[in-house]
Design a protein that fits this description.
By secondary structure, the protein is α/β, with parallel strands linked by helices. The chain folds into two domains: 244 residues, Glycogen Phosphorylase B (Rossmann fold, 3-Layer(aba) Sandwich), CATH 3.40.50.2000; 177 residues, Rossmann fold (3-Layer(aba) Sandwich). The chain contains 16 helices and 15 strands. It has a seven-stranded parallel sheet with strand order 3-2-1-6-7-8-9, sandwiched between helices. Helix 4 packs across helix 5, helix 9 packs across helix 15 and helix 12 packs across helix 13.
Length: 446
């Protein structure tokens, strides 16, 4: 076997986890060997995932060593695990949506103030002890931790310090500025501890990677730390691999479909868009007959209620969770791909992983969110769609009317550019190049 450098990847989300959180590390693992790095994955033996996608297990390259260790986490007390995307309990989604009940507030308080930085905090010390034994027999050249959960960084920080191994801390989302911390009734002491741990990670990591410009600026401003911006990616899956144009493989939907794939949470609800569509439905019976709002994946009850409130129920097609590969046909045939950004104070940083699969699908993207945010920047840079600020109903209406008219004329297409820079292979190449700078002389024999 050839000599390659070896990296230990510490991640909580790993197949059979479903959803977007698992994709980043999975795609890095698929391509790292192409650039001289052999990955070894450390993950939980008994995780409590919100979604399961068994099909993703087949995406793991043959021969990848996966090390697992039992985890104890408070989330095990909440029956929220989902098999194949289907809740085990009809009340699960209601619990996750954080209804304002006293018991929910108490549980959030306990979670936020006693499990810092997150619900996997109890896994840190046992993982460090276990991995020290593992690494005494299996040498690695570098450690890579991906968060959230940010407990993964604490495991990596201790290993890096004790074993003198370079370490890259990867942030898919922010830490102390993440919106959900505001819902956990954090005490001043808890806030200070979060801030102290975040500073320790960012200042002590050999390198920091982030998924967008806003997070880069935040870490630069707060800690004077430069990060490497390595975006999320689209995967070169069988559904996207073809010499023929995707439009020939997946003909556009006959209806005027507005498609969303993935979790549609309460804070992504677009009342302003539903109101705009409702007005158009009321005024134009032909538009009403052709409009189809296709939501694939888990949809929050408030989002469904909002759609019903605007009397768009007849236009709604809801599809429960389906394996990732099966979503590609829906993406590539959509008349518009809906990308609602989380309506949170720091919404500019939101750069959801689904955006990059949207890009590769080569269908018009309709973003509802900050026109100067990270996601809008990517869309505009690729000429891949249209961006409307929260509440800008006039622009939403004019954009939807334009898309609808192009649909009627059979010309609803886009000519995106620079999309290849977001391929999983290209972005893994960038990550491997960063790894190389941290380990110029090291090379472990496999």
């Amino acid at each position: 076997m050839p000599f390659m450098k070896k990296v230990l990847i510490i991640t909580y989300y790993w197949p059979p986890a479903g959803g977007t959180s698992v994709q980043r590390c999975l795609r890095f693992v698929k391509y790292l060997r192409n650039y001289g790095w052999e990955p070894m994955v450390y993950t939980a033996d008994n995780p409590n995932y919100a979604l399961y996608d068994e099909a993703l297990i087949r995406e793991i390259p043959e021969g990848i060593e996966t090390i697992k260790y039992k985890i104890y986490e408070p989330n095990n007390f909440f029956p929220r695990a989902v098999k194949s995307g289907k809740p085990q309990n009809g009340k699960v989604l209601d619990n996750l949506e954080g209804k304002k009940r006293l018991v929910t507030k108490i549980l959030w308080f306990i979670r936020g103030n006693f499990f810092i930085p997150d619900a996997r905090a109890l896994w840190v010390k046992p993982s460090v002890r276990y991995l020290k034994k593992v690494l005494s027999a299996r040498k690695v050249d570098l450690i890579f931790s991906s968060g959230p959960p940010h407990s993964m960084h604490l495991i990596a920080q201790r290993l890096s310090k004790d074993l003198h191994i370079p370490w890259v801390a990867d942030f898919r989302d922010p830490w102390t500025t993440m919106d959900y911390l505001g819902e956990m009734f954090l005490s001043p002491w808890a806030k200070r501890k979060h801030e102290r741990l975040e500073r320790m990670v960012i200042e002590n990591a050999s390198a920091v990677t982030v998924v967008g410009r806003t997070m880069y600026n935040e870490f630069k401003d707060r800690y004077n730390r430069d990060s490497a911006v390595i975006y999320n990616s689209y995967n070169e899956t069988e559904g996207f691999k073809s010499a023929a144009p995707l439009s020939e493989i997946y003909p556009p939907d006959k209806k005027f479909t507005v498609v969303h794939v993935g979790s549609f949470k309460n804070n992504r609800n677009c009342d302003d868009l539903w109101e705009t569509l409702a007005e158009m439905v009321k005024k134009d019976s032909n538009f009403a007959a052709r409009l189809e709002i296709k939501l694939i994946g888990s949809v929050a009850s408030d989002v469904l209620a909002s759609i019903e409130r605007y009397k768009l129920g007849a236009n709604l097609k809801k599809i429960d969770f389906i394996p990732y590969r099966e979503t590609i046909a829906h993406l590539c045939s959509a008349q518009a791909l809906l990308l609602p950004i989380d309506r949170i104070p720091n919404s500019e940083f939101v750069l959801t992983g689904k955006l990059f699969d949207y890009l590769k699908a080569q269908r018009p993207i309709l973003l509802i969110g900050p026109e100067k945010g990270d996601a809008a920047y990517v869309i505009q840079n690729c000429h891949a769609g249209y961006c409307c600020n929260f509440g800008d109903k006039e622009k939403m209406k004019s954009t939807v009317k334009m898309l609808y008219q192009l649909y009627l004329e059979g010309r609803n297409t886009i000519r995106s550019v620079n999309v290849e820079q977001y391929s999983a292979s290209e972005l893994t190449k960038q990550l491997a190049a960063l790894f190389d700078t941290l380990t110029p002389e090291k090379r472990t024999e496999l």
